[in-house]
Amino acid sequence: MALRRKRADRDNHDRWLVSYADFITLLFAFFVVMYAISSVNEGKYRVLGVALGSAFGTSAAKPGESGAIRLNEQELYFKSIIDRRNARLAEQQRKLNERMQLLMKNLSQVMTGLVKNGQVSISQTSRGVMLDINASALFALGDATLSPAAEKTLADVAKVLSDGDMPIEVEGYTDNLPISTSLYPSNWELSSARASSVVRLFIERGVASSRLTVVGAADNSPVVSNGTPEGRARNRRVTVTVLASDIERGAQPASAAGEAVMPEPANTAP
Q1: Cα–Cα–Cα angle for 143, 144, 150, nearest 5°?
Q2: N or C, where is the chain less crowded by C-beta within 10 Å?
C-alpha cells in the first residue's frame, strides 16, 4: 500500500505543467485582444474570433453548440468596440472638417476683391486649406518687398489665422526665367525672400512664429506650362497652406460651390 502511494506521488510531480500551459494560452489570447483593438480594421474582429476559438478549441464547433455561441459572442463584442471607435472618429472628423470650412469662409471674405479679379484662389485639399496668391498682387517685378496694398490685405489674412493653432506653410514660387541680381542671384533666393516677407508680416500681426514655415521652391511645381507669358504669370505665386491635423487630412476636398478657382490672370508682371 505504501509503495503504491509513493508511485502516485512520483507521477504527479509534473502536474504544474498543465496550469502553466493554461496560463500561456490565456496570455496569448490577451495579446491577441490588445493587438486587435489597437487599430481600426473592420475585418480584424473576425480574425480575432477565429484565433480565440482556435486557442480554446471552439473553432470546430457546429452551429447551435456552446462553442459556436461563445465564438459569436466574442465577434459581437469586438465588433461593438470597433463600431464605437469608428463613430467617435467620424464625429471628430465632422467637427474638424467644419472648422476647416469656416476657415475657408473667413479667408474668402477678407480676400473677396482678389478672388474676383482672379489673383487669389482658396481651396481645401488633403493637406488643409490652401490660399494661392498671384505674385503680381504682392510684389513688384523681380522684388520681394510687399506693396502697401498687399500689406493691408495680408494683415486681414493674419487676423483670421492668428486665432488658430494649426501649422502654416508659406511657399514661394517663380517662373522658369532666370534672374541674377545682387539681392537675388537666382530664383531660389527670390522665391524664399517672397515667402519670408509674407511670414514676417504674419508674425508682426500676431501669428505665432512657431506655427510658421517658409519654403522657397523657385520654378519647381508649376501649375501650368511656362511656355507662354500668361502661364509664367500664373506660376509666379505665394501659397499659404493651413495644415490640417491627421484626422482633418482625411477630409474630402471642398465642393465646387465652396471653392474659389483662380482663372488666367490678365496681369503678366512677375
Answers
A1: 110
A2: N
Strand partners, 128: 243
Give the CA dihedral 155, 160, 163, 169, nearest 10 degrees.
Answer: -80
Residue pointed to by grid coordinates 482678389: 114
Is the Cβ–Cβ distance between 207 and 155 less than 8 Å?
no
Segments in 177-228 forming alpha helices (H): 187-204
Q: What angle do CA 23, 29, 31 make, to 5 degrees?
A: 105
Cβ neighbours around 88 below 10 Å, total: 10
Task: Tell me if 243 sits within 8 A of 128, measured CB to CB.
Answer: yes
Cα–Cα distance, 233 to 217 (Å, whole number): 16
Question: For residue range 238-269, what is the model confidence (pLDDT) as tens digits?
Answer: 999 999 876 544 444 443 333 443 444 444 44
How far is it, in rounded angstroms, from Cα 239 to Cα 214? 10
* pLDDT, tens only, 158-181: 999 998 888 999 999 999 999 999
Homologous superfamily of the 111-258 domain (CATH): OmpA-like domain (3.30.1330.60)
Contact 146, 201 (CB under 8 A): yes
The C-alpha atoms of residue 142 and residue 68 are separated, in whole angstroms, by 76
CA distance 127 to 250: 9
User: CA dihedral in degrees (238, 243, 248, 251; nearest 10)?
Assistant: 20
Q: pLDDT tens-digit profile of 97-155?
A: 888 888 899 999 999 989 999 999 999 888 889 999 999 999 998 999 999 999 999 99
